[in-house]
């Protein structure tokens, strides 16, 4: 269990330094310490620790539970709470964030180390399950004949296949973790106005959702590409929506063929009027 990175979030500096010293004596790495919820979120994104030790009561606008929610949803980093407060309301709020542990202050080093080792072991087991599941989904996406982007429950990109990379202009490493709206931008061809991303409805309502004809994808290079699009929810074995998939394809060639046919039938140039 040596060399794992642990972020310490504690607003009492003496307590934070004591925890840091204990963790380093166990063989863990403490890349940084945070004293507010806002700092905790930023440091989690920057350092990508293996675990966060989070004090529930923090100074500032964001308490430990709110910070843990953001870190859990956006970074998939497990959190173990440190707190002297054990009232039922606080515990219920904390449970909503699916913590990997809960340590009541004051605690000794053995209790601290045991909880950390259990949390890291649980994380390793869950990562293996997620890896196997994600690998299967990603492999399926990479072998589909259309462009595909998948997201997590918060609408952030978890995978983008080669066809989707080619059309959007975003490489895999650029897209992962980004809000899907930033990678997959679509507008109405007629009005030029933004079109609601299909993942929003898929995530919100758990249903398939297709975009109407005349939808145009704006690539990273600002190319305008007419596309057919459908969004679909991803569900787990409990039928809970845990993400969404966008499937889309470039219909430029198809539209050119349709226009050529209309030109032949009704006269050159008139097909543009019919299509609009």
From TrEMBL:
SUPFAM superfamilies cross-referenced by the UniProt entry: CheY-like, PYP-like sensor domain (PAS domain)
A single BP term in Gene Ontology: phosphorelay signal transduction system
Gene3D superfamilies for this protein: 3.40.50.2300, PAS domain
The protein, known as: Histidine kinase
NCBIfam families: sensory_box (TIGR00229)
Alphabetically ordered keywords of this record: Kinase, Phosphoprotein, Transferase
PAS domain: residues covered: 133-206
Organism listed in the record: Methanolobus chelungpuianus
4-aspartylphosphate modifications at: 55
GO MF assignments: kinase activity
PANTHER family linked to this entry: RESPONSE REGULATORY DOMAIN-CONTAINING PROTEIN (PTHR44591:SF3), STRESS RESPONSE REGULATOR PROTEIN 1 (PTHR44591)
């Amino acid at each position: 269990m040596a060399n794992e990175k642990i972020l310490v979030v504690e607003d009492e500096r003496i307590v934070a330094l004591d925890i840091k010293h204990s963790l380093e004596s166990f063989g863990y790495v403490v890349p940084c310490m945070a004293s507010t919820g806002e700092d905790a979120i930023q440091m989690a994104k920057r350092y990508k620790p293996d675990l966060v030790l989070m004090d529930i009561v923090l100074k500032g606008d964001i308490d430990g539970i709110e910070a843990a929610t953001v870190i859990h949803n956006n970074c998939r980093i497990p959190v173990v709470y440190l707190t002297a407060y054990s009232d039922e309301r606080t515990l219920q709020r904390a449970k909503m964030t699916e913590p990997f542990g809960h340590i009541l202050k004051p605690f000794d080093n053995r209790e601290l180390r045991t909880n950390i080792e259990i949390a890291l072991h649980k994380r390793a087991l869950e990562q293996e399950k997620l890896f196997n599941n994600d690998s299967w989904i990603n492999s399926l996406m990479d072998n589909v004949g259309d462009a595909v982007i998948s997201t997590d429950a918060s609408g952030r990109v978890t995978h983008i296949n080669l066809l989707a990379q080619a059309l959007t202009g975003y490489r895999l490493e650029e897209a992962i973790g980004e809000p899907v709206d930033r990678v997959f931008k679509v507008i109405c061809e007629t009005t030029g106005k933004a079109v609601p991303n299909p993942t929003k409805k898929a995530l919100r309502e758990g249903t398939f959702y297709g975009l109407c004809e005349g939808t145009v994808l704006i690539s990273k290079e600002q190319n305008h590409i007419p596309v057919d699009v459908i969004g679909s929810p991803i569900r787990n074995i409990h039928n809970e929506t845990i993400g969404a998939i966008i499937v889309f394809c470039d219909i430029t060639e198809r539209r050119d063929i349709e226009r050529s046919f209309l030109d032949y039938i009704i006269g050159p140039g008139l097909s543009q009027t019919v299509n609009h």
